[in-house]
C-alpha cells in the first residue's frame, strides 16, 4: 500500500513539467483558436462540472476581458433534465472536462452542436465520448492523473484555456513564456509558508476562501480541494459577495484564505480583508500581492500578468489541502465517497 497522499503529492510536483509540455503545443492550440475566431461568435457558453467548472469560470473572465465577448456558464440540466432547446446559431460552446465522460456534458455538447453552436471540447482524455461529439477537441495533455483530487489536470486546463483565448486575440503567449520555471519556483519558495499554514489551520473546522476577478476561480477551487481532501466546511465567495452578507458568519474561529495577486482584482481585496480581520478572522493571503493586504500570514508568489496568476496561485493551495488532510489523519488519495469520474445527468 502506498504512503498516504503519495499520488496527490507526486502530481502536484509534476506541474512545472506539465506546463512545459502544454506550452510546447501552443501552435496546435492556436489552430483551434483561429477556427473559432474566424466564426466570429456572438457570445460564448462554457459547460463543466467540479474542478473543471472553476477552470470554466477562469475562462469566462478571459473571454469577457481579453476578447470583449459576452460569456456565460451553462447549466447542462436545462438540456438533460428539462429539454430546453435554445437557438445557439453563432455561439461558441466550450465544454471543459478532465475525463470527458460525464453523460450530462456529453449530451449537452451534442445538443448544442445540433442547435448550431461551434463546439469545442477541452479534455485530458482525447478518445473520450465528449471528444467524439464536439466539432473540435483540444487535448490538455497532463498525462494520466491517478489521485482522485484533480491537481495537474486543473492547472493544465487553465493554461490550455489561456493559450486558446490568447491566440484568439492574436497573442503570442508571451505572458506565459517560462511558466514551467515559475511554477517550480512557486512550489519551492512556498513550501515553508504552506507548512506554517497547515499548523495554523489543522484544528479549524470552517474555512472561507475568497478572491476577485480572475482569482475568483482559484478561491473556488481551493475551497473544493479543502472540502474533498480534509473534509473541512469550506465555502468560497467573491470578495464582493463576501461583504453582502456572508461576512456576518465570520469570527475568530474562521480561517480565511484570500487569493490576492497584483492587478485590479487584488487591489479590490484590500477593503474586504480589512473588514474580515475586524471580525477577528485568521487571514492567510496567497498571491503576488499577499504583502499588500491586511493578513495574519502570507504566502507571496512571483508576479505575472493578472490573467495568468491563477495558474500559479492554485499550486500552494493544493499543497495546503494535501498537508491539512495528512495533518488531520486522512488520506487525500482516498477521500471518502469519491471516485475519479463522477457521472451526472
TrEMBL record:
CDD domains, A to Z: SIS_GlmS_GlmD_1, SIS_GlmS_GlmD_2
Domain SIS: from-to ranges: 31-174, 197-335
InterPro entries according to UniProt: GlmS/AgaS_SIS (IPR035466), GlmS/FrlB_SIS (IPR035490), SIS_dom (IPR001347), SIS_dom_sf (IPR046348)
Keywords: Repeat
Superkingdom of this protein's organism: Bacteria
Pfam families: SIS (PF01380)
Matches recorded under PANTHER family: AMINOTRANSFERASE-RELATED (PTHR10937:SF8), GLUCOSAMINE--FRUCTOSE-6-PHOSPHATE AMINOTRANSFERASE, ISOMERIZING (PTHR10937)
Name of this protein: SIS domain-containing protein
